[in-house]
């Protein structure tokens, strides 16, 4: 377990086991503490089925029975989800208009973030079969979009295409950077910021900031080198990240 998306996958995978009372994630240490009553074998097998490299470290008794409420965290995550989905719409629209594959790819990364947050929020209270169905649809949709993006990258790489509008790339990415900065600020000022789940969300959003900076750099290089290659390279990198995220989501559908 080494990223927030995997945390959400584990939460959904274990959701059907009623004996689980609480999950305490430690992303930096790549550890998970499961508070439960019985069914330890079922819990271990469920985690191993995700094929994330998990293994049982130890099992011990505890007297802890009270756990923090997650209501405020859900409200905050809804806000972060809304911002991500709004910028998916903005970036994919401006990316297509400006002919920038970097912006298109970044929009899919924003969509992937929305899926990761949405899968755990939309499916709350639903049946396991419903959650698996949502996960499959989300995963296949992401992969389909990413493959279409790869095909377009190859077509532009070997063909003669007009340069992407580097100004649009930079301006939109700067606004996306600001949006992710706002998300980080909201997560940072949260009273629950020290909890592993919220720390995971901050790591997730920090990764988005790095991608935004990559698209900005690609825009500058497009102008400096008078070539569309930097835009295609950053687009390819982000498409790969999107597919990796989709594969993790699809594991829930099996």
What can you tell me about this protein's structure?
With 254 residues, the chain is mostly helical. The protein has a single domain, classed as Alpha-lytic protease prodomain-like (Up-down Bundle), CATH 1.20.1510. It contains eight helices and two strands; from the N terminus they run αββααααααα. A two-stranded antiparallel ribbon has the order 1-2. Strand 1 and strand 2 form a beta hairpin. Helix 3 packs antiparallel against helix 6 and helix 4 packs antiparallel against helix 7 (196-225). The chain is elongated, with a radius of gyration of 20 Å. Mean pLDDT is 77; it is low at 191-197.
Secondary structure layout plus pairing:
Blueprint: H1 4-14, E1 20-26, E2 31-36, H2 40-49, H3 71-98, H4 101-122, H5 128-158, H6 166-189, H7 196-225, H8 229-250
Antiparallel strand pairs: 1-2
Could you state the order of secondary-structure elements as H and E? HEEHHHHHHH
Q: Give the strand tally.
A: 2
Question: How many helix segments?
Answer: 8
Distance between the termini: 19 Å
Shape: elongated
Biggest beta-sheet profile: 2 strands, antiparallel
CATH class: Mainly Alpha
Mean pLDDT across residues = 77
Features:
mainly alpha, 254 residues, single chain, Alpha-lytic protease prodomain-like, two-stranded antiparallel ribbon
Task: Write a short abstract of this structure.
With 254 residues, the chain is mainly alpha-helical.
């Amino acid at each position: 377990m080494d990223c927030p998306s995997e945390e959400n996958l584990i939460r959904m995978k274990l959701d059907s086991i009623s004996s689980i009372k609480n999950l305490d994630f430690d992303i930096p240490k790549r550890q998970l503490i499961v508070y439960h009553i019985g069914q330890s074998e079922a819990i271990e097998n469920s985690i191993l089925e995700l094929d994330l490299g998990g293994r049982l470290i130890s099992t011990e008794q505890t007297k802890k029975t009270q756990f923090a409420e997650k209501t405020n965290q859900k409200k905050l995550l809804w806000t972060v989800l809304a911002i991500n989905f709004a910028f998916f719409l903005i970036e994919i629209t401006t990316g297509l208009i400006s002919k920038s594959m970097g912006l298109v790819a970044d929009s899919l990364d924003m969509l992937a973030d929305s899926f990761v947050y949405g899968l755990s929020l939309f499916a709350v209270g639903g049946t396991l079969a419903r959650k698996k169905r949502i996960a499959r649809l989300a995963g296949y949709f992401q992969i389909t979009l990413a493959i279409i993006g790869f095909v377009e990258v190859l077509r532009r790489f070997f063909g003669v295409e007009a340069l992407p509008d580097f100004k649009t790339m930079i301006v939109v990415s700067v606004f996306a950077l600001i949006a992710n900065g706002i998300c980080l600020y909201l997560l940072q000022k949260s009273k629950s910021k020290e909890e592993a789940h919220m720390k995971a969300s901050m790591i997730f959003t920090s990764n988005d900031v790095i991608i935004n900076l990559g698209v900005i750099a690609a825009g500058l290089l497009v102008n400096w080198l008078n070539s569309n290659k930097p835009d295609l390279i950053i687009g390819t990198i982000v498409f790969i990240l999107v597919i990796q995220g989709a594969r993790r989501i699809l594991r829930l559908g099996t």
